[in-house]
Write a structure and sequence with these properties.
It comes from Luteibacter sahnii. This protein is α+β, with helices and mostly antiparallel strands and 415 residues long. It has twelve helices and 16 strands.
Length: 415
């Protein structure tokens, strides 16, 4: 477990050294100072925080407590007073600062500390205290077990491949006595340093075994707040993505619904177009189809009374076919000339005599005509001469006498 702690301490020391050696701490201090100048003085005082260092040192027969950088002591604990009084005096002076921000340094006079400059290889920088600890017998007139020492990297210019460090050492017995006395006064130093004017020299001689273990609740709270902020940030982003996906799903559903409606409307439009086309086709077919009753009426009026029909047909193209018997079948062509609904009459095959009735059996073909509004009848396939003859025929031909009712009935039966 000790090896693991040493390894972790080594890694932390490397990170601290890399941080201090970078330009970022100086930039952050400058930036914080510039931003702090924009904050009102009252606010700066209310939110002021950070570590505040106090110096405790032995002076004759008393302990003196002051702030770093100040010469006037805050409290003096005289040995002539009882221990409770001295504890109260020191505790009252330290009470002005929050315990989380309070740091106490035990200051030794310069004459009590041996200080030396060392030029070491760069490889010793990662584990400086351990490297120097192995060489204490050569660097100091004491054995390693007789002193407490501290070492620091000065950061000064050094030959290539080396760096400059400072070693500070003090007798172990004298320092342990002072630390024990301060422990009795309920004061636990965070470091042991050397007095440098009203400040500190910057070298720490406090033995690692006697260093206080502090729990920085504020740092933990800040870390927890940072974690909460990160989680809330991720939650906000996740919520935004969820809302965006939900909106996209709703839009897709709406688009699918509109697409379905559009397809339904398209199908209805197609059906309407087909229905309109079918109805138009039926209307055209109806308009183009010949009318049967006017043709039958015209045949009844134009054919002689002694002529009757056995069969009458009209196909979709307007082709008329009728078969019957007549005493003089050859005269039927002249009888049908100028008809309004029947055009181009002609015989199909030969005229034959019927031995039973004594009449001539015939089969004729003609074309159905559509009367114009003016009274003339035309057929899309009829020749102009036929239309002209049809228009003049009623003027020169006599209307035939009406046929008997039985002949009309026979014609209907034939149809």
């Amino acid at each position: 477990m000790t090896a693991l702690q040493d390894a972790s301490q080594l890694q932390l020391e490397r990170l601290r050294r890399a941080w201090r050696g970078s330009a970022l701490p100086g930039f952050l201090r400058w930036w914080g100072g510039e931003l702090g100048a924009l904050v009102p003085a009252r606010w700066r005082q209310a939110f002021a925080g950070g570590r505040r260092w106090y110096v405790v040192e032995r002076q004759d027969e008393a302990w003196s407590l002051r702030r770093v950088g100040e010469a006037q002591p805050l409290a003096i604990a005289d040995d002539a007073e009882d221990i409770e009084r001295r504890i109260a005096v020191l505790a009252g002076a330290l009470a002005e600062t929050d315990p989380a921000d309070r740091r106490v340094a035990l200051v030794l006079p310069p004459g009590r500390v041996l200080r030396r400059r060392l030029v070491l290889p760069l490889a010793a920088r990662d584990n400086l205290r351990q490297v120097v600890g192995f060489d204490l017998d050569r660097q100091t007139p004491f054995r390693a077990e007789e002193i407490h020492f501290g070492v620091r990297d000065l950061g000064e210019v050094a030959p290539e491949g080396r760096f400059v460090a400072e070693l500070a050492a003090t007798p172990r017995q004298a320092l342990d006595a002072q630390l024990d006395e301060l422990a009795g006064l309920r004061v636990t130093p965070d470091r042991v340093d050397v007095r440098d004017g009203q400040g500190l020299a910057g070298v720490d001689l406090l033995p690692p075994a006697r260093a206080p273990r502090r729990v920085d609740r504020r740092a933990r709270l800040n870390a927890a707040l940072v974690a909460v902020i990160v989680l809330l940030s991720f939650g906000a982003m996740a919520g935004w993505l969820h809302n965006r996906n939900a909106a996209l799903d709703a839009m897709r559903a709406e688009v699918d619904s509109l697409r379905t409606d559009a397809q339904r409307v398209k199908a209805l439009r197609q059906r309407l177009t087909e229905s309109a086309g079918a109805s138009g086709f039926l209307a055209r077919r109806k308009a183009e189809s010949p009318t049967i009753l006017p043709m039958l009426a015209e045949l009844t009026a134009r054919l002689p009374d002694d002529t009757w029909l056995e069969r009458f047909t009209v196909n979709a193209s307007g082709q008329i076919g009728f078969q019957g018997q007549s005493p003089q079948a050859a005269r039927l062509i002249d009888a049908l000339k100028g008809a309004a609904y029947i055009g181009e009459p002609s015989f199909q095959g030969t005229i034959q005599s019927d031995p039973t009735s004594g009449k001539e059996r015939f089969y004729m073909q003609a074309k159905a005509l559509t009367p114009k509004p003016g009274g003339a009848a035309t057929h899309p396939h009829a020749a102009p001469s036929a239309a002209a003859s049809a228009s003049t025929a009623p003027a020169r031909a006599k209307a035939p006498p009406p046929k008997p009712a039985k002949e009309t009935a026979r014609a209907h039966e034939a149809r």
